[in-house]
């Protein structure tokens, strides 16, 4: 609708724009009305995944125009095919499309023509950004954009991507866009049209089949309809083996697509973000909502009894979601939904009971013990052990408890819960990705509790499971981080550095950067490069990380990279530069964590050490004295005590220096490493010897 020109805008800034114009002397009243509707629709929108509108107006000859963002991208399917994007990368960029459509709906609009040509993707320095364009037939949900009589009796949109209710001429809402998104995802994943060629040849027949929900096979079945050569090519372009791709399609993705393009709008995902969230669960290895738990249970049991018939069983269940809904099937679905509802009601009651006990324990009137984070967790853990919960619910709650204990530094307790999670997921034969993620967390906890051999064995098992599942490189980051930490603790620096590099490479390969994961990867790799004396490489990695997180609103992430930068500056002998960097970090950490947090104390300790190094003892000494008090974290206190003891020696107060060294040598500070205790003991022995003489 209208003609689009590439133009150069001069004011208020110089930039390339897309100029869309409808010639008034050539356009019908209907076309002008639709163009006006598009202008009104676009004026409402402001989202990074929707093409921006800079200006609208009317030319001297009465022709209306729209000045829009120029999107120098390719349609989403072409973009991903040309880059041989993996399944994970395709889903990641599609999730951003869902975010854009969600914004459109939030602004009271239905796009009504979502299809690959109307979703353009640009690649800017490795960041893939999709943009939704062409709102020429958008519809207002509340106030109509135009008189809807203008479209009465017309088939609005592209038939292949229109929901069945639209093809039947019925009223349709935002779930029609969800249906279209499902088909865009379908084509993005498999690389061909959802409708087989023999059906697509007859347009009228295809529309009738689509309206009945009969034209589109499951993703797995459509893949099987391709020639062996075509299947192999599609698999290679996605970086996996054909058998692996068949397995990926037949698990969660068949179910997710079945729900997105369900014949009944009520059975679809309610919103684009609900679809995006289920795709995120799939990527993270968590159970997806689209897959009914009872059917999953039946399928798992059948798998164990009849492994030879897995493919047939999967096809049967998936095809049921797409076939004509007979009366018998509807009755079966009703029974399934009733059982699921009962299961969820029971789960909710059990969880509510546990939460009720936790709340009661924290009530000072009903419980004499004042609550602390640790005491509340202990009570929840005890309560969980005494309740007969469904295994899936138990695994989820145990995982949350595990993470909470770990955040408090209670690593043995967290590890004990972690092994329970692993055992439940292994026994229930859940998705490999979910089991691998559980192994990843367990490996990290084993390393924190000193079980290096167990950590390495568990991490390697997790990597093997992710490899078999076709996981993307960035999903393996935590496993490589754990291996890097263990190798470093063992003094195996080459192996530690190799694992850290794999983690960093995986984070850089993400189509959409995860700032927190990226920061963790940068910290690990830069620390190892610094320890190896590769200061330039360490700083290069940190600078790359800062370029990413500086765009993030959370300044805490920046602080987490400025600290390793200060360590590199110190290693190079630039102590004044390191001091300035630590001073830049302090207000960020103190604002986020509070003045009494260990991280705040740690930064202040580093500032004092740098002050002492450059000769400003008067500033450093009061900080060391404050941080040597008994209520400071043991690690910080130990270092402060050692520095203060040396200052006392410089001040010729040998008795006070002896007292401080003795605290560290006996590990009364609670955080002294063996080398620190040994150094302190040498000073004690020398002071006592000199006193005796």
Detail the topology: elements first, then pairings:
Elements: E1 3-9, E2 15-21, H1 29-43, E3 53-58, E4 64-69, E5 74-75, H2 76-82, H3 87-106, E6 109-110, E7 119-124, E8 127-132, E9 139-140, H4 164-167, H5 174-190, H6 197-200, H7 203-211, H8 219-224, H9 228-237, H10 242-260, H11 272-284, H12 293-305, H13 310-322, H14 327-362, H15 373-385, H16 391-407, H17 411-428, H18 432-448, H19 452-468, H20 477-489, H21 493-508, H22 515-531, H23 535-549, H24 555-571, H25 575-593, H26 598-613, H27 617-627, H28 634-650, H29 654-665, H30 674-692
Helix pairs in contact: 3-5, 3-11, 5-10, 10-11, 10-13, 12-13, 14-15, 15-16, 16-17, 17-18, 18-19, 18-20, 19-20, 20-21, 20-22, 21-22, 22-23, 22-24, 23-24, 24-25, 25-26, 26-27, 26-28, 27-28, 28-29, 29-30
Characterization of the model:
This protein has 693 residues and is of the alpha+beta class. Among the domains are: 3-69, 2-Layer Sandwich (Phosphorylase Kinase, domain 1), CATH 3.30.200; 74-323, Transferase(Phosphotransferase) domain 1 (Transferase(Phosphotransferase), domain 1), CATH 1.10.510. 63% of the residues lie in helices and 6% in strands. The chain is built from 30 helices and 9 strands. The chain has helices at residues 29-43, 76-82, 87-106, 164-167, 174-190, 197-200, 203-211, 219-224, 228-237, 242-260, 272-284, 293-305, 310-322, 327-362, 373-385, 391-407, 411-428, 432-448, 452-468, 477-489, 493-508, 515-531, 535-549, 555-571, 575-593, 598-613, 617-627, 634-650, 654-665, 674-692, and strands at 3-9, 15-21, 53-58, 64-69, 74-75, 109-110, 119-124, 127-132, 139-140. The strands form 3 sheets. Strands 1-2-4-3 form a 4-stranded antiparallel β-sheet, covered by helices on one side. The chain has a 3-stranded antiparallel β-sheet with strand order 5-7-8. Strand 7 and strand 8 (127-132) form a beta hairpin. Helix 3 runs antiparallel to helix 5 (174-190), helix 10 packs antiparallel against helix 11 (272-284) and helix 20 (477-489) runs antiparallel to helix 21. The chain starts with a strand and ends with a helix. The model is unreliable at 142-155, 293-333 and 356-371 (pLDDT under 50).
